[in-house]
Amino acid sequence: MNINTIQYYSKTQIGTFSIPNNSYLVTDLGMEYLANGDLKNYLSELNYTGCDKISDHGSKCLKLQTVYWTGCEAITSQGLRAFNGHQTLKTLLMFSCYNFCWEDVESVAQTCSRLEYLGLIKRIKTPMPESHQDFLQIGHHTCLIEWDEGEGVFF
Question: Which of 45, 48, 50, 133 makes a 20 to 30 Å CA pair with 72?
Answer without folding.
Answer: 133
